[in-house]
Specification:
The complex is a heterodimer of chains A (310) and B (250).
Chain A: E1 2-6, H1 17-25, E2 31-38, H2 42-49, E3 56-61, H3 70-80, E4 86-90, H4 93-105, E5 110-119, E6 122-127, E7 132-138, E8 143-147, E9 162-166, E10 175-182, E11 195-199, H5 206-220, E12 223-226, H6 228-232, E13 253-257, H7 263-266, E14 274-279, E15 292-295, H8 298-308
Parallel strand pairs in A: 1-2, 1-4, 2-3, 3-9, 4-8, 5-8, 11-12, 11-13, 13-14, 14-15
Antiparallel strand pairs in A: 5-6, 6-7
Helix pairs in contact in A: 3-4, 5-8
Chain B: E1 2-6, E2 9-11, E3 18-19, E4 26-27, E5 33-35, H1 37-51, E6 57-64, H2 69-78, E7 82-87, H3 94-108, E8 112-116, H4 127-135, E9 139-149, E10 152-159, E11 162-169, E12 172-176, H5 188-194, E13 199-203, E14 215-221, E15 230-232, H6 235-245
Parallel strand pairs in B: 1-6, 1-8, 6-7, 7-13, 8-12, 9-12
Antiparallel strand pairs in B: 2-5, 3-4, 9-10, 10-11
Helix pairs in contact in B: 2-5, 3-4
The chains are: A alpha/beta (310), B alpha/beta (250).
The complex binds flavin-adenine dinucleotide and adenosine monophosphate (AMP).
Flavin-adenine dinucleotide sits between chains A (200-202, 227-230, 241-246, 258-260, 262, 264-265, 268, 278-281, 284, 297-299) and B (13, 37, 120).
């Protein structure tokens, strides 16, 4: 019984969530392999080999794996799947795209966004935007799952796994990767930032979103987040939406600015260690999940807060 | 071009669901139900493609009890041409839904299959990808824009850190994100007209597919709730609390 972790990387750097996936995989007390598919992602492969607990890294190089599409990733995993009884990855737009495809090809159920591994086939995951926790048991021969990264500590980088090269199946030719737009930002990555400053619709415009929140985020070394309402209105890019249908964050400090606190939003931030809410409505639901609430006009207090921070 | 759209009936997104006292499942008896929000985006997109003259027929399909007629009527009122209800009272999991949808795809041979990116009850986000896998079709998940030219569908996908664009050869599976479009409001006359459009009911047994759930539900529970904290009166008090009580050096 061996565990396969699908690694996420950008061609160079391994995504830190792989270290969390390794910690989750240790629940099975079995050998752990990491799959790095790409086109010469040597640095990411070496990083994967250095994660404590990883026994082997499978590197697959092919020109058609330069920009990964779910169809190729799924066919690749299925081509090596006979050696594995668990296939997992940290929950992200990458794994959400590929692993259901793997599960269907293997004719097994998939368990999405696992919060806790209770036993080798029993998991806790949430439904209804995090309002209900379910415990589910899968009796399938192969367990396919994604894990909720922030619930698992990152495994240390003290390992020294062997690296094996494996060939890729032919390219899936009905899907062509065309282009990507990566949001440019000097700020820390939202999903792993220690501090997050999030803004809502109340910022009123993209200019205000930037002018009011950026200086605060810069001073704190924080990532910026947003509500869906703010993203839909075009005040902030889609990839910083926090919530049920966006990114889930669990920083040490989350500052919600002019955010009402809809359950779809709080799903994405309520595991934060300390939550600060600034809202002019004393009855805003966000105060029910905030450790410290400040009832005030954000346009007054955010600049004051920024100025007062050392 | 024919488009098939999968619409799920779910608890309304404003409802906070309760748990049965014995913790065996959620209790949704008498709760307000509606169309899964992402599926509404999927129908809207299909109808827009028809209005642009790119699609000839839009078929809505839902799987579940006879009550699912209401979400199909909603889809018809939005502009779908006809609807299919695959009837069962068994709770269906994504892999089973994908297998049943595959059977309908094989019968209807649509060029494009639109689904929501995720159902807001199970929050699985799997069915579209599973359906694409079973059909060996290309997939464009979490779509925020699509464009069709001849046999190629260009899809912009919302991914962590930005967006990505793919070109898919039809037939293909696309799952809708909320920003794909703004679904239209259904007007009363449209609802009246929708009553005349056909809903074909197919009993699930007629499709000959095993529908037993693979995942066994052991129990449901309330998550630990965050305790509401305190209100502070000023920026100074806030910073003071963070520094002295939380050890956050701001
Ligand atoms: C299927 C589905 C999925 C969804 N997924 C997500 C998701 O992932 N993430 C998400 O965030 N939302 C999501 N939503 C939307 C969610 O339900 C809310 O509509 C949204 O979070 C509200 O955003 P908001 O707080 O910015 O806006 P509003 O609810 O309009 O709140 C604005 C707040 O700002 C306050 N305010 C106004 N002016 C000021 C001022 N000058 N100073 C201080 N405070 C002020 C107001 O008191 C109010 O509380 C989803 C909805 C659906 C249906
Ligand atoms: N019972 C169902 N009937 C119709 N469509 C469904 C059903 N279940 C899932 N779907 C479709 O699959 C999408 C994703 O669902 P899920 O994988 O459960 O999150 C939904 O948005 C629907 O488009």
């Amino acid at each position: 019984m061996t565990i396969l972790i699908l690694a996420e990387h950008d061609g160079v750097q391994l995504n830190p969530s792989v270290q969390q996936a390794v910690t989750a995989a240790k629940a099975w007390n079995s050998a752990i392999h990491v799959l790095v598919a790409g086109n010469g992602a040597d640095a990411a492969t070496k990083q994967a080999a250095s994660i404590h607990g990883v026994e082997g890294v499978i590197q697959v190089n092919a020109s058609h794996l330069e920009n990964l599409i779910a169809e190729d990733v799924a066919n690749l995993i299925v081509s090596i799947s006979k050696d594995y009884s668990v296939i997992l990855a940290a929950h992200s737009s990458f794994s959400k795209n590929a692993l259901p495809r793997v599960a269907a090809l293997l004719d097994v159920a998939m368990i999405s966004d696992v919060l806790e591994i209770k036993a080798n086939n029993t998991y806790v995951r949430s439904i209804y935007a995090g309002n209900v926790l379910t415990t589910v048991l899968s009796s399938d021969a192969v367990q396919v799952l994604t894990i909720h990264g922030s619930n698992f500590n990152a495994a240390a980088l003290t390992g020294n796994a062997t690296i094996a090269l494996v060939d890729a199946p032919p390219a899936f030719d009905k899907t062509q990767w065309k282009s990507e737009i990566r949001s440019q930002s000097d700020r820390p990555a939202l999903s792993s930032a220690k501090i997050v400053v999030s803004g809502g619709r109340s910022l009123g415009s993209a200019e205000h979103f930037e002018k009011v929140l950026s200086p605060l985020a810069s001073k704190l070394g924080a990532a910026l987040g947003a509500t869906r309402a703010a993203v839909d209105a075009g005040y902030a890019p889609n990839d910083i939406q926090v919530g049920q249908t966006g990114v889930v964050v669990a920083p040490e400090l989350y500052i919600a600015v002019g955010v009402s606190g809809a359950i779809q939003h709080t799903y994405g931030m309520r595991d934060s260690k300390v939550v600060v809410a600034i809202n002019q409505d004393p009855d805003a639901p966000i105060f029910q999940v905030a450790d410290y609430g400040l009832v005030a006009d954000l346009f007054d207090v955010v600049p004051a807060l920024t100025a007062a921070i050392q | 071009m024919k488009i098939l759209v999968a619409v799920k009936r779910v608890v309304d997104y404003n409802v906070k669901v309760r748990i049965k006292p014995d913790g065996s499942d959620v209790d949704i008896v008498g709760v307000k139900m509606g169309i899964n929000p992402f599926d509404e985006n999927a129908i809207e997109e299909a109808i827009r493609l028809k209005e642009k003259g790119l699609a000839t027929e839009v078929i809505a399909v839902s799987l579940g009890g006879s009550a699912n007629q209401d979400v199909l009527r909603h889809a018809l009122a939005m502009g779908a041409d006809r609807a299919i209800l695959i009837e069962t009272d068994v709770d269906l999991q994504p892999l089973v839904v994908a297998k049943l949808l595959k059977a309908i795809v094989e019968r209807e041979k649509p060029d494009l299959i639109l689904l929501g990116k995720q159902a807001i009850d199970d929050d699985a986000g799997q069915t579209g990808q599973m359906l694409a896998a079973l059909l060996d079709y290309p997939q464009g998940t979490f779509a925020s824009a699509i464009e069709i030219e001849a046999n190629t569908l260009t899809v912009t996908r919302e991914v962590d850190g930005g967006t990505e664009t793919l070109a898919l050869t039809l037939p293909a599976v696309v799952t809708a994100d909320l920003r794909l479009n703004e679904p239209r409001f259904v007007k009363l006359p449209n609802l009246m007209m929708a009553r005349k459009k056909p809903i074909e009911a197919i009993n699930v047994t007629a499709l000959g597919i095993a529908i037993e759930p693979r995942l066994k539900l052991i129990q449901v529970a309330e998550p630990a709730v965050r305790k509401a904290g305190i209100k502070v009166g000023s920026v100074e008090e806030l910073l003071n609390k963070l520094r002295t009580h939380e050890g956050i050096l701001v």
